[in-house]
Amino acid sequence: MRDDRAYRRRDEQDRKQDRARSSRSPPARRRPSPPAAFPPSSRARSPFPPSNHPRSPSPPAAANPQSLPNFAPSGALAAETNTMHGVLLKYNEPPEARRPEVGWRLYVFKHDVQVEMLSIGRQSAYLVGRDRVVSDIPIDHPSCSKQHAVIQYRCITSKNPYGDSQSTVKPFIIDLDSTNGTFVNGQEVPKSRFYELKEKDVIRFGQSTREYVLLHDEAA
Q: What CATH number has the domain bearing residue 193?
């Protein structure tokens, strides 16, 4: 009997020690589950097999002319900038255009008889022609063009005998590609080119018999 009690006592002590050890040991850690395998991004996936040849770069797209700004005036606007009283002018004054420094005049003769005197010193250019709407010096002869010629004053720079530069406003005439020409001292002047006029020059337009003698105030 004594041995049985001693055996039960040791067995009870062993169970107490096992419970004490189990209460002191930490719980086992759970290993995190491996991440789920996701398929590769659809942006990196290509439905075509890889090519063994390198792809040449695409040429740059040509600029669309309709998309570019165009600051040039339209046809109607361009014509309007060179019109007078609704009439399209054939002539534009050059940058060197100036008003004359002296009072130039045209003495008009017909059959050696003076019929008129025109003062042409108040502006830088005078249009000669049959179109009275725009002409500064109207001429009615049928052989003359509507816009026949222009007397233009221009500032010309030259050097004097001492080598100094000096500017002088001189009269020129330009034929506006007229049908029957412009004549100075009996010689036809080149068309669409400035021709310098001198004092006492005699000018004729087309087949008109009227003569225009050029003088200025100091010589009159």
A: 2.60.200.20
Supply 198's token pair. 């001198």
Domain encompassing residue 199: 93-216
Q: How far is it, in rounded angstroms, from Cα 181 to Cα 20?
A: 135
What is the pLDDT at residue 85? 87
Q: Are 96 and 155 in contact (CB under 8 A)?
A: yes
Q: How far apart are CA 220 and CA 119, in angstroms?
A: 12
Residue 12, pLDDT score = 72
What is the C-alpha radius of gyration for the chain, rounded to an integer number of angstroms? 53
DSSP state of 145: -
pLDDT at 203 exceeding the cut of 90: yes
Read off the amino acid at residue 116: E
Q: Are strands 137-138 and 125-129 parallel, antiparallel or unpaired?
A: parallel
Model pLDDT for residues 72-128, shown as the tens digit of each residue: 443 444 445 688 888 899 999 999 999 999 999 999 999 999 999 999 999 999 999
Residue 193 lies in a domain: yes
Residue 187, classed as helix, strand or coil, is strand
The residue among 86, 179, 95, 82 whose CA lies nearest residue 129 is 179
